[in-house]
Amino acid sequence: MVQLNTVLVFWGEQQGFNIAIPSIVEKTNKLINSSSTELWFINDHQHVESYEWLKKLKWKTKILVSDPEITQPSDAQVIEVLSTLIRERKPKAIILPACDRTNKLVTKLGLALGVGSLLNVSDIEFQNGRFLLRRRIFGGNLFGTFKSSSDLLICTLAIEQTNKEIVEKFTGECQLLMKSWPEMRGLRIIRNEEKKIKKQELSISDAEIVVVAGRGLGSRNNVCELGKLANLLGAEIGGTRPVIANGWLPRFRLIGISGNTIKPKICLVFGASGATPFILGIDKSQKIIGINNEKEAMLFNICDVGVVAECNQLIQSLIDQIRSNGEL
Amino acid sequence: MNILVCLKIVDDLDGILEEDWKNASISSLNFDYTKKMVDYYDEAALELALRLKDSLRDIGSNCKVDVVTVDPVDRKLFFRSFFAVGVNNISQIIPEEELLFSPYKIASLISAFAKHDYDVLLFGMQNSLANDCQTYYAVAHTLNIDCITNITNLEMLNDDLKIYFDEDNYSFEGLVSPPIVIAVGDTQHPYLRMATLREKLKAGKKSANYYQSSEFLSTFENRLPEDFQLLSINREKHTRNCMFLPGSEGEFAEQLLQEYLAKWCN
Known about the structure:
The complex is a heterodimer. Helix content of chain A is 27%, strand content 25%. By secondary structure, chain A is an alpha/beta fold. A nine-stranded mixed beta sheet of chain A has the order 7-6-5-8-4-1-2-3-9. In chain A, helix 7 (276-282) links the parallel strand 13 and strand 14. Chain A is elongated and about 70 Å long. Chain B is globular, with a radius of gyration of 22 Å. The N and C termini of chain B lie far apart (57 Å). The mean pLDDT of chain B is 89. Chain B contains eight helices and 13 strands. Chain B is an alpha/beta fold. The longest helix of chain B has 19 residues, at 40-58. Chains A and B meet through helix 4, strand 5, strand 6, strand 7 and strand 10 of A and helix 5, strand 7, strand 8, strand 9 and strand 12 of B. Strand 10 (197-198) of chain A pairs antiparallel with strand 9 of chain B.
């Protein structure tokens, strides 16, 4: 196993790091491991008072960067702190789990340091003194293997929630370095009218049963009918990109490479052709049932059960049957 | 207000044959037979720019919308439709090498082209081919201006731009002062408007400007890091064995309910 001074950085609002870590260890081919990796927790201010949970992780070093007075540090502040830590501790690689914010931070950090960065990497290897990174390209249809030219790797890692829990549960000594945010001029954005609206609690990623609307349903009304079926089944409803683009479902119900990745017990897909960016959003489902009126639809390549039928009629039949069964 | 929309014409990936995906390699990436289209988010960015132009024109303010694309292939057909819907100027920068996976080189070209002549530089959030989301950050860094991403809407408010954007599970509104780089995400109007016949005929007389990348590449090249090098590509496809339900349409609902969905019926 290669021993490198790597750093895994968690952004404070990221959830489920203790589940993400086993996935990250696997995806980095154990480059991330408890003996050679430092963990840096940024803006985890809500845990400042009680970092017992940190002490239980048997990792080489844990650094907590936090300031309870500042709940939303600017990108410039975060990058300044990360740059200072990188200069002090000279890691070989900086890896963050991917999300909107970390993708932005990593790109800006790389530009500030004059180092290239790569986003949403699927896995990482270290060969012949260089990092090799794999990432999906061409809408997820292919994997590209990229080589970094720099000595320092900066990237985000696309992680999937797994059901594995962190195996190492040790108590042990840890070194904590407390830092506070530097004084910065701040960005030039004027937020006089900033309104922060927390989007609806999204349960689609955790749902046990999901029904998905594809463009083949044809109209917003038909998608509404599918919504009724979802209610009767206690299911969440999601949509493919064309459905979202047409405004038939809100953006946060997008299923696919740019939206939600789901892993329900049952996924019912109505009227989707089976384009790869969408398939990548559902392929962790335990059972996929696809309904399309064309037997040659690509969708059926990834289904466990296929139904060649007119989607809207089948939706109505299901609704009618469930209701009549309920009345018996 | 001067707006520059940076866009790409891409292959419709849904039209590519499985055989071609399996056989794809760096030297043989040729999807000439597929339909071409404006990249999804770039199209939304262009429509957003035109809507902003419309709203400024309604209040008597001038606004210019220009388009630039970095592409080795002449996209005349698309340019005609862009002129028809109200784009003022179109420029195509022709690179000497393939730059699909070189966001920093592309950023260097665009920055050198745009210089500081534009108030707003609009990009689509995500490149559907390279799947990178970095070019606009690199442009902002090179031009030393701010960059905001995941924009869902834009309005003018006096001399400022009112912006609506998403980040992770939150939606924001804010005000920014140009110049600014903006990456457009999921908007309410992602599709480009259709031109009338009169607009198309009028646009037929306009033509784009063409530049060689060598005219620009050295200007900002040293300000940006080296791009990652693509070594190889491969196809990994997961399939399942699909069992088709037997019987006729009238029987499917009952079969589904009995065999798979009974547990979830309320």
